[in-house]
Amino acid sequence: MDSESSKSAFNQIMEAINAKGVNMIGLHGMPGVGKTTLAKEVGKHAREQKLFDKVVMFTMSQNPNIRTIQDKVAEMFGLNFDKNTEEGRAEELFRSMQRVNKILVIVDDLWEEFKMESIGIPFGDDHEGCKILLTTRRQQVCTKMNCKEIQLGILSKDEAWVLFRDKAGLEDDCSTLNDVAKEVAAQCKGLPLAIVVVAKALKGESLNEWRDANQRFKDSTHLYDEEVLGGVLEPLKLSYDYLKKGINQMTGINDIQMCFLLCSLFPEDEEIDTEILITCGIGVGLFPYVSLIEDKRKKIVEALKKLKKSGLLLETDGADTIRIHDVIRDFAHWLTSTGENRFMVKDTLKEWPHMDESYTAIALWNCSSIIKIFPDKVEFSKLKTLFLVGERKRKRDDFLVVFGTFFEEMKALQVLLLQRVSFSLKGLPSLPNLKTLWCYKCRLKNFSSSLTNMRSLEILALIGTEIDEISEELVKLSALKYLRLSNVGVEREMNIPPNLVSRLTSLQELHVISANNLNLLELKSLSRLTALSLELSANQIPLEDFVLPKLQRYGVVVGEIYAVNREAFIRTLVILDYSSSLSAFNNLFCNVEELILWDVGGQKNIVPSIDEMGVNELTSLHLASCDDMEFLIDTKNDQGSTVAFSNLVELKISSMVSLKGLCYGVSPTRFLQNLKQVSIKDCEELQVIFQIDKLSERMKYQTPLLSNLTELSLHSLPKLKMIWEVKPSHRAIASLQSLKVVRIESCHNLKTIFSPCLALSMLHLQELDISYCDRLEQVIGFGQEGEIIENDCLLYCWPKLRVLSIHHCESLKYISTNTLIQSLESVYIENCHQLIQIYNMEQNIVLPELGSQESLTNLKLILLPELKYMWNVPNHYLHRVEITKCDKLTYLFSEITARTLVHLQFLEIRNCYSLEHLIGEAENMDEIDISNTKDQSPLFLPNLKGVRIAKCENLKYLCSSQALPYLESIEIEDCPRLIQIFNMEKNKDGFGLQNDSPLCCWPKLRILHIEFCPKLKYVCANTWTRGLQSLESVFIRDCSQLIQVFNMEQNKHGQDIVLPELGSQNHCWTKLKTLQIEDCQLLKYVFANTLSQGFPLLESLYLKNCPQLLQVFSSTEERDVIGDHILLNVPFLKNLEVSNCPQISCFIVQAQLIEELVLSNVGNSRQLCNTDVPVLNEGCIVVGNHEEVFQVQGGYLFSSIKKLKLRNLFEARVIWNDFAQVATLENLTTLTLSDCKKLRYIFSPMMARSLSHLVDLFIEGCEEIERIILAKDQVSSSSSNGDTSHQPKSFRNLTRITVTNCKNLNSLFPFGLFPVISKLESLIVERNSKLEQVFELEEKVEVVAKEKMKFYNLERLLLEELPGLIQFCPKGYHFVFPKMMELKVRDCPKLTTGFFIDSQAFVHCKTKLVEQDAVEESTTVQNAIFNENIDWSRWLRKSQLPHIT
């Protein structure tokens, strides 16, 4: 029920989630008011609306287990922890969550201030995209944690009464009972939890009982903890007291009440395993007058159902678990805090608590293995129930170690539950009253000898537990009624001693749920056995005449299978890979509820071959790869009296090569009358599934056949011709009234899905998914003559169909004929080549609402080459439209439809060749009455947010619309005939350009992306730039006719003019971050009427190949202009690229954060040389194609730049002059210089010293360069800051160097640079005709004989077409390249450096000494290769290098 308080709180939470600066939201309210329910609803909404990338929810509770919470969160993020400490795991989780952009974390039931970082949850400055919603009973917790506080209030009086009345099953009348009930409801104080619990407790009671309850409320003493339980205690106490029938003498309270209290022993918010609960209940003596375990089980299950009905327990998704609300658990703890039944429960234990001996039940969960004072012995003379559980840890061997003496003084103990506990050498002491021992993942030493100390034991469960052996000592447990063994010991197969089980004659339940060696013949001795769980191999089935006993419950699995539950919750039989006789299972077939047969041979049918009685208790049947089976049932020899498969709910069939049908002969009585789910796949002989024409006379008077069917899935049935074969005379006895989901795939012979008579009954169909059915022509079709009779209704109504998905059905012409579908939310149709129209409406039916898509939100059509029309009806809820490859579609919507598209937000169209515009004109507008069309908007598409259109060759414009107040994104690509995006001509209906609003207004437009639209002249004429205040990104490419992006129209002479209304206005683009324009040959202006200061957040500016581009910004104010140069005042600019824009000469940049600068082929700017540079603002840098590329006005720091690329700057002689005095290049990583013909050098020695991060250096076609780094004698005194000759250059990160086509380059680097290019990996030097030396000795250095220098990282060296190269390394030096992978030397005729390879495959090089200087050259140099071409690779077999030892 949605109360006003919960609606208000929900809206406040969603508002806070979307608000900037709010990272933690606190939802507080009284216990039982519905905080958890609301938090779950927020999480569900966030997932469905995709508001976050991840939504995580966990419960903190009073004693949070951090490791468990970390595990739950990590699972959501796919994280496997490497570290074991809480702190280490928190750090791993922290980093993992930081990698996800948007996260919602819901923290339920927080009791005190808590640091989320201790779990590993980043938020605030550490992760702005992470929002935390916490729930708490205490407002001060929200305050302390600086939350946005939101209170969840109680229900109003009227809301509380309506909820109470519904839950109590009362009529809405003025009876005396209702008067009393209203007084009782008022006592629940508007708390939903209290209302539900009390209403359910009193449901169906007499007026006197209601009066008694009301009086008890009035007489209550109000003794409770206000903070913990608040106003729910009295209502809960009333409900608890109503579990009143029968007091158990052993426990002193009612059995159902004790069952409820036992549930409170389990951890908060954990699902409780009902099997454990049942065995514990039996152990404490519930229902003592019932002797059989099976009967006790039924009683306890009945009690749990009553507790769930009363609202004191909650359902879970699984049938074998239950849950208790945290507030109700707190109430149970309050009940057991005093009196005869005192309980203690600790959800987490790190220190041993103070306890007295009065407790009757203690549950200690997650006990840390490092508890310092774990007692050797404790005295609990009244203790009957003990749960002792070690901490959950990754290491299996990490147990809670307990001495056996710990239990010595617990003589009254009846139930002992142990998890992750290890016993000392002595084993368990004498526990004379112990009835139930349940051990999970424990290590029990000397367990066999301990059994003699537990003579009263009735229930023994050992699961994943290490014991010394399964011993003969078990026989001494004469009272043992229940034995559960699963993965006991350390071996894969459990070793059960021969003849042990047969001597356990008191056994009523035996559960052996892992591989074992049990001899099944021993079961004959167990006359009291009622329940059996067994995992067997085929070899364990005796070949002699053996039959398993009759059982009330069983779970028997023959063969290895992993996905099947072996528990005996329902009667389950699984047989895999079995070809022998099935007679051993005869006693199980008669009452089996779930039957799975995989690869079972020799059976032609289930009935009568396997069971002659008709398997009428069977609810689930799975058949796979049973190659001999032809039908489920054969009735040819039956006289019509058989009842078969009458309770079957689920049918799954796969890979049955011989299956021909479900029934051979006349269908038996009640055949499949309860069938709900059908899945059939890969049955190649199946032609008809439901043969409704073959029915016994009795069937005509029963529940309609298939009336309970809810889900049908058919896959890969190549010969299937009909799903249902129905005679006209049998129409009344077949119905699909419950069918909700139909999925059909790869049924290539199917021509229709539903016959007309069945289609009429499908009032609840919700999802229809059809794919790869090549011959399918219609969804509803006429399969047989005579199906249509006179006065047949031709209108098929599927009022609940939400999802329609059809793809790859090449013969389909119509989706449906005359079908009323009002709830459709999503349509997806793909690759249906014959589809003409989605709805084919008969001409003689006049129903104005027919096909009205009132709820359709998503429409996706792909590859429908014959589709010409969609529909001509209103649609008020369409949210998203995607159309691809529908070549004959000329428009999307008629005008009448378009008028109602008030909620359309996203539109995507691709490859629609004939599409001219989105909205087509109705042929007979005068005949269409649209006066009653609701939500009719004066604008087309008023809520449109995103438009994406690509490859629509005939599209001229989208539609006529000037105001799109919610439009956020326009992306248009490859539309060669597009002239305008929005046509501004006023159309005949008054839509389009309005007299009082002549300007386009797109106040939320963030992204404008247009590519390959050669006829587009304007994005939109008459654009009001103030209506573009949200623009963040503009990308325009290959629009050859585009003249101006905004604010242009043509006068009567076809000339471009600026609108007079805007001529004097200058605007700001306060959110624009990226502007990129490429290949627009006629573009002259981008932003007229905008000053450069109007771009305060601009980060990236790219202008490429725009030969006519004159201005990006306005030049209306002199203070922004120097000559013809634009002052770019953009403080956050990071990327600036201007390429092939010859009308633009240079920029004067005020941008301290610039990281990437590319300047290529721009106009020269000699005029700047005559400009008085000092007039520039402090901190400016002038960038342009002039003699000095960069001119700096003092104080400018250039330290942010990472990439610098200069190309085709024909006027540039110097990149930077005196630059190092005012700027630094400490972060430069990439420098590219190309075709700067007049450039003389690159670095001065001082500048070179600041290049510590340079990684890539590329120089090409710089013809005048003689040196890369000026020699010290070339540095003018004015530009030198002290003596730099002895200061090392800093290229320590230089990795790749390429120098080509620099014809005047004499040497590459001074030899002194060698030690600081140690990371060099690639050196390519090509076509530098005057290059003589790669490494040049600047001064005469004394040659040290055989001196070696290693280039540790150089992998690639290319020296090609270098006619002047004499030496690679200086004379007398010896270079070694340990990692060399590729060496190429070509056309270097003067080279005196030779190359060779040693025994370690290291490449070496040496330069010949001049003869008069050489005393004696080594053999090594004489054998090396000189002035010959080398093409060597370490891996490829190319030319060889000489090997030198």
UniProtKB/TrEMBL annotation:
Q: Which residues form the AAA+ ATPase domain?
A: 21-158
**Gene Ontology BP, a term:** defense response
Lineage: superkingdom? Eukaryota
Among the Pfam families in the record, one is LRR_14
Keyword presence, Amino-acid biosynthesis = no
InterPro entries per the record?
AAA+_ATPase, Apaf_helical, At4g27190-like_LRR, LRR_dom_sf, LRR_R13L4/SHOC2-like, NB-ARC, P-loop_NTPase, Plant_NBS-LRR
Annotated GO molecular function terms are: ADP binding; ATP binding
Which residues are in coiled coils? Answer: none
**What protein family is recorded?**
Belongs to the disease resistance NB-LRR family.
Please report the name of this protein according to its UniProt entry: AAA+ ATPase domain-containing protein
